């Protein structure tokens, strides 16, 4: 049985301006001990889909299925889902300062989460909190446990939040841009930490980011989102060695890289990400796609479906496999 | 090459006041003795982690802050202590691009008012009127000139950053200090703005001081790079030399921490993991400020401050035990 199985997930928000289709038919699977990287730009639906897994949307219309360890979460009892949070699944948020309560000490917040799931005394829970802070590399955890979040530096806050998320050994850990606000040296420490903890506890990890470097460091599989849908997914090595979707090419071409010769010019994607109220018809990427004309029309009215292209690699694009192969090898890869 | 900007011994200490009488109890040494030059037409990047003083340096160069000590010369003229009135003509030559395209534009003003503001403030007459000049600028940065009457909220982040760039260019500055110009933007938009800044530099002969923390973007855009740590420059070199033969251990560590977008190279990469955080600039470590996190630190590093020396032509490093020493 697949540990996390998301099927045709749709998350829509009714607003005064119209229906915002943040996630519009997303499916993926994740096994225990594996890491999935969800990549996309702001508004692609990557965070919204993960909040839906945790049941954290209040005013959204959610349809589709989310199976966690054989249990359906869409439409499940709220109190029941609340009981799953913390122990079964936990989340690391991007901004620890707004995700932590400013009036409680870091220790109190970890203790609270721990005692919801474990019948232990406060003293035992506190000892556990200190252990967790030590585990994530907070210096002097014995005294730091009584500090308030504002007394921590950015990197330490992020580590404290990881300690909080991991305090109950969650089976599913969702990390939403866990290192975006951090400096590179601290980012490297946090990525190492997530990797080590996953090895130790064997959890399933979803890492959400816009940084292809970060997913390349951590993920076994990658899912690229655009306009609320998955446009390409597959094993990490496939996505980097043999990307098939023009949007993935665009992301790779937009990014200066330290591991290659310095390119004279970046190859950006033209235009801007779509409005989720008026998602373009057909393929949501077609107004920005440099190769839509090769297809001759279908991109504008027909939504491309995900199709297997071999090796567990799926892509949703109207270009033929020969066309994609040719463009990647002649126009994109040599210029990266 | 001409030196456009010369900085020597630049310091900025922010006083820390405590207690009822607000007595001065210490100082945050945000910038603590910088020496560098910026040549006409080049891009100099200032890189480092948060709290290293790179943003403060940018604000000192544009004289948005007054230095505590040191000297800034622009085109051979000392501008360190110019008064607000005396600075005004200088503002035509030195401009700034800000990081956050959301907070750096007044939401109540139209694009036309925002981009035209420099003309009004400096009382500059343009041959065919301000409106025409603003529309030309919008076109130059890749925006539709017909959007003259729109408000900032009607634009996306990347477009707003273009509006900010158009405003910066209005008075044809010589030097632009760009503080994290692309870090708030999405990846695909980042590349558009990076290309725009490069095109503008080539077309208009601009000189950039770029403040950034993304080492990949810095390598792409800069000619020379200064690496800062706790208010000091620890290494300054030509781009290629810095990335291929970094000498300061801190630079080596920074470069090895950059995630490489290639899953095959995940294993087997030589990494240097710095432990802990950057120490507080309120109370920086004595002698070499990096010694608390440096894996090569010896007794000398804790007692003698290493000077910034030119160890190879054009390659300055402040370290007693540099990596990749010249043979």
TrEMBL record, chain A:
<dbReference type="GO" id="GO:0005524">
    <property type="term" value="F:ATP binding"/>
</dbReference>
<protein>
    <submittedName>
        <fullName>Peptide/nickel transport system ATP-binding protein</fullName>
    </submittedName>
</protein>
<feature type="domain" description="ABC transporter">
    <location>
        <begin position="6"/>
        <end position="252"/>
    </location>
</feature>
<dbReference type="InterPro" id="IPR003439">
    <property type="entry name" value="ABC_transporter-like_ATP-bd"/>
</dbReference>
<keyword id="KW-0813">Transport</keyword>
<dbReference type="InterPro" id="IPR050388">
    <property type="entry name" value="ABC_Ni/Peptide_Import"/>
</dbReference>
<keyword id="KW-0547">Nucleotide-binding</keyword>
<dbReference type="InterPro" id="IPR013563">
    <property type="entry name" value="Oligopep_ABC_C"/>
</dbReference>
<dbReference type="InterPro" id="IPR027417">
    <property type="entry name" value="P-loop_NTPase"/>
</dbReference>
<keyword id="KW-1003">Cell membrane</keyword>
<keyword id="KW-0067">ATP-binding</keyword>
<comment type="similarity">
    <text>Belongs to the ABC transporter superfamily.</text>
</comment>
<dbReference type="InterPro" id="IPR003593">
    <property type="entry name" value="AAA+_ATPase"/>
</dbReference>
<keyword id="KW-0472">Membrane</keyword>
<dbReference type="InterPro" id="IPR017871">
    <property type="entry name" value="ABC_transporter-like_CS"/>
</dbReference>
<dbReference type="Pfam" id="PF00005">
    <property type="entry name" value="ABC_tran"/>
</dbReference>
<dbReference type="Pfam" id="PF08352">
    <property type="entry name" value="oligo_HPY"/>
</dbReference>
From TrEMBL, chain B:
<keyword id="KW-0547">Nucleotide-binding</keyword>
<dbReference type="InterPro" id="IPR027417">
    <property type="entry name" value="P-loop_NTPase"/>
</dbReference>
<dbReference type="InterPro" id="IPR050319">
    <property type="entry name" value="ABC_transp_ATP-bind"/>
</dbReference>
<dbReference type="GO" id="GO:0055085">
    <property type="term" value="P:transmembrane transport"/>
</dbReference>
<dbReference type="Pfam" id="PF08352">
    <property type="entry name" value="oligo_HPY"/>
</dbReference>
<dbReference type="InterPro" id="IPR003593">
    <property type="entry name" value="AAA+_ATPase"/>
</dbReference>
<dbReference type="InterPro" id="IPR003439">
    <property type="entry name" value="ABC_transporter-like_ATP-bd"/>
</dbReference>
<dbReference type="GO" id="GO:0015833">
    <property type="term" value="P:peptide transport"/>
</dbReference>
<dbReference type="GO" id="GO:0016887">
    <property type="term" value="F:ATP hydrolysis activity"/>
</dbReference>
<feature type="domain" description="ABC transporter">
    <location>
        <begin position="16"/>
        <end position="255"/>
    </location>
</feature>
<comment type="similarity">
    <text>Belongs to the ABC transporter superfamily.</text>
</comment>
<protein>
    <recommendedName>
        <fullName>ABC transporter domain-containing protein</fullName>
    </recommendedName>
</protein>
<dbReference type="GO" id="GO:0005524">
    <property type="term" value="F:ATP binding"/>
</dbReference>
<keyword id="KW-0067">ATP-binding</keyword>
<dbReference type="InterPro" id="IPR017871">
    <property type="entry name" value="ABC_transporter-like_CS"/>
</dbReference>
<dbReference type="InterPro" id="IPR013563">
    <property type="entry name" value="Oligopep_ABC_C"/>
</dbReference>
<keyword id="KW-0813">Transport</keyword>
<dbReference type="Pfam" id="PF00005">
    <property type="entry name" value="ABC_tran"/>
</dbReference>
């Amino acid at each position: 049985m697949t540990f996390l199985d998301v099927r045709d997930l749709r998350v829509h928000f009714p607003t005064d301006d119209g229906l915002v289709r943040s996630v519009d038919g997303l499916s993926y699977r994740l096994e225990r001990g594996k890491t999935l990287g969800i990549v996309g730009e702001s508004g692609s639906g990557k965070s919204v889909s993960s909040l839906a897994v945790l049941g954290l949307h209040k005013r959204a219309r959610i349809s589709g299925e989310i199976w966690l360890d054989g249990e359906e979460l869409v439409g499940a009892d709220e109190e029941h889902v609340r009981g799953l949070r913390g122990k079964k699944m936990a989340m690391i948020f991007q901004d620890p300062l707004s995700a932590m309560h400013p009036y409680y000490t870091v220790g109190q917040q970890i203790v609270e989460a721990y005692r919801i799931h474990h019948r232990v005394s406060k003293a035992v829970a506190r000892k556990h909190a200190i252990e967790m802070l030590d585990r994530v590399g907070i210096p002097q955890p014995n005294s730091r446990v009584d500090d308030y979040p504002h007394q921590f530096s950015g990197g330490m806050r992020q580590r404290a939040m990881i300690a909080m998320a991991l305090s109950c050994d969650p089976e599913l850990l969702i990390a939403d841009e866990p290192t975006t606000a951090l400096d590179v040296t601290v980012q490297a420490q946090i990525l190492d930490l997530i990797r080590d903890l996953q090895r130790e506890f064997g959890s399933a990890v979803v890492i959400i980011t816009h940084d292809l470097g970060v997913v390349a460091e951590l993920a076994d599989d990658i899912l690229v989102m655009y306009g609320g849908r998955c446009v390409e997914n597959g094993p990490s090595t496939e996505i980097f060695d043999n990307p098939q979707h023009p949007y993935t090419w665009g992301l790779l071409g937009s990014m200066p890289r330290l591991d290659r010769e310095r390119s004279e010019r970046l190859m950006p994607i033209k235009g801007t990400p779509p409005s989720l109220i008026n998602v373009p018809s057909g393929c949501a990427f077609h107004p920005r796609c440099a190769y839509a004309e090769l297809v001759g029309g279908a991109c504008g009215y027909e939504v491309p479906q995900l199709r297997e292209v071999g090796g567990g690699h799926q892509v949703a694009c109207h270009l033929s496999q020969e066309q994609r192969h040719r463009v990647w090898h002649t126009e994109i890869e040599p210029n990266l | 090459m001409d030196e456009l900007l010369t900085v020597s011994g630049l310091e900025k200490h922010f006083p820390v006041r405590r207690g009822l009488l607000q007595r001065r109890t210490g100082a945050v040494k945000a910038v603590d003795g910088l020496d560098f030059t910026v040549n006409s037409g080049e891009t100099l990047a200032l890189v480092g982690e948060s709290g290293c003083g790179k943003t403060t340096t940018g604000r000192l160069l544009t004289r948005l802050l007054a230095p505590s000590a040191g000297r800034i010369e622009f085109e051979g003229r000392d501008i360190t202590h110019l008064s607000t009135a005396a600075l005004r003509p200088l503002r035509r030559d030195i401009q700034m691009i800000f990081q956050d395209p959301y907070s750096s534009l007044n939401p109540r003003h139209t694009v036309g008012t925002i981009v035209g503001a420099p003309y009004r403030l400096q009382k500059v007459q343009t041959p065919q009127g301000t409106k025409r000049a603003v529309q030309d600028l919008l076109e130059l940065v890749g925006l539709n000139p017909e959007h003259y009457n729109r408000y900032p909220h009607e634009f996306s982040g990347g477009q707003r950053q273009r509006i900010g760039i158009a405003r910066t260019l209005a008075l044809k500055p010589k030097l632009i200090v760009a503080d994290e110009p692309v870090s708030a933007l999405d990846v695909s938009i980042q590349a558009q703005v990076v290309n725009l800044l490069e095109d503008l530099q080539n077309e208009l002969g601009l000189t950039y001081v770029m403040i950034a923390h993304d080492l990949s973007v810095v390598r792409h855009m800069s000619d020379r790079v200064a690496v800062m740590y706790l208010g000091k420059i620890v290494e300054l070199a030509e781009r290629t030399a810095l990335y291929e033969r970094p000498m300061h251990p801190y630079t080596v560590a920074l470069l090895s921490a950059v995630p490489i977008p290639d899953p095959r190279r995940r294993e087997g990469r030589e990494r240097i993991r710095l432990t802990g955080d950057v120490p507080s600039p309120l109370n920086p470590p004595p002698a070499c400020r990096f010694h608390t996190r440096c894996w090569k630190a010896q007794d000398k590093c804790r007692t003698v401050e290493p000077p910034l020396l030119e160890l190879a032509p054009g390659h300055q490093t402040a370290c007693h035990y540099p990596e990749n020493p010249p043979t």
